[in-house]
Design goal:
alpha/beta, 19% strand, four-stranded antiparallel beta sheet, 302 residues, single chain
């Protein structure tokens, strides 16, 4: 009932671990699959290791989670080894995820990570909390997204997914530009920029002051981004942002998503959230006499 085809690969269900959550070690990734997740996106990696931002880097509230981890990661070489370890434990689909500071660096890290046993490659051009190091995210610029997509496609041996931000006012136009430049799919999207202030200390809580907002509060923003992009492109979409229930998941598919990125829900519900979401999807589908997700994909546009 939930089996999903994405760029020629079959997922047992459409849930995918979003980048940045538990996707660091082979064992951690396998544990998520054992909990019922359909596929894995690794934590975004760079050519060289990054320490990220000083603590405090994250805080969770009832309706949102905010982080400014700063893309800390062990570098592409270590990531390749962890993906290889995961492959000894599971045959589940794997999406690599990379970021870089220039189009040329994106080309180089693509060449590097494609030595790993990946099924797909996500290109993170949209992280909102490293502007001091990298400037405004590339995902706000049609020319930048086009150039990066072309560079990556020239150097990738797997399908390429461009990860955009729902914060861009013209996200659908940017998605269309990515498609025209050769992207095989779109991930919509990433966190959006936000801030929390402690009223007693009268200071921002995060050391970086601003961070990326995820969790339930992000869901309607991400949903509209997927809806708008679906009207504009012919390639599949990974709908990501604030999904915590089966109802959220089905709404995202009705907006046009093929796969569903699930991340901050792990903070709220634990690793069991993947099975919880898919069980709730099945229950609603039975109630509504829906036999497959293909029946309802994009249904909100009718």
């Amino acid at each position: 009932m939930l089996k999903t085809s994405f760029l020629g690969k079959t997922f047992p269900n459409p849930s995918v671990l979003a980048s940045g959550i538990l996707g660091v070690t082979g064992a951690g990734m396998n544990r998520v699959i054992e909990q019922g997740c359909g596929g894995i996106t690794i934590k975004s990696v760079s050519l060289e290791p990054r320490t990220g931002h000083p603590n405090p880097t994250m805080i969770g509230k009832k309706h949102f989670f905010i982080n400014a981890v700063g893309l800390s990661n062990p570098g592409v070489e270590e990531a390749i080894e962890e993906i290889k370890k995961f492959r000894t434990l599971s045959n589940a689909p794997v999406i690599g995820s990379v970021f870089a500071g220039t189009p040329e660096e994106f080309a180089e890290i693509t060449r590097q990570i494609c030595r790993a046993p990946l099924n797909f490659l996500e290109i993170n051009v949209s992280c909102p909390n490293v502007s001091k190091e990298f400037g405004d995210p590339f995902a706000y610029s049609i020319p930048a997204v086009q150039t990066i997509t072309q560079k990556v496609k020239e150097n990738s041996n797997v399908p390429v997914i461009i990860k955009l931000t729902p914060q861009a006012w013209n996200v659908a136009d940017i998605a269309k530009a990515a498609q025209d430049a050769g992207a095989d799919a779109i991930c919509a999207g990433n966190t959006i920029s936000g801030m929390v202030i402690d009223v007693r200390s009268r200071q921002p809580i995060l050391h970086n002051k601003q961070g990326g907002v995820s969790g339930p509060a992000l869901f309607p923003v991400a949903l509209k981004a997927v809806y708008d992009i679906y009207k504009t492109v012919d390639i599949p979409i990974i709908g990501t942002g604030g999904i915590t229930t089966g109802e959220d998941a089905l709404a995202m598919i009705m907006a046009g998503a093929t796969l569903l990125g699930v991340g901050s829900a792990v903070y709220y519900e634990g690793e069991e959230v993947f099975k919880k979401i898919t069980d709730e999807m099945i229950a609603i589908m039975h109630e509504e006499n829906i036999h497959s997700l293909d029946e309802i994909r994009g249904a909100a546009h009718n």
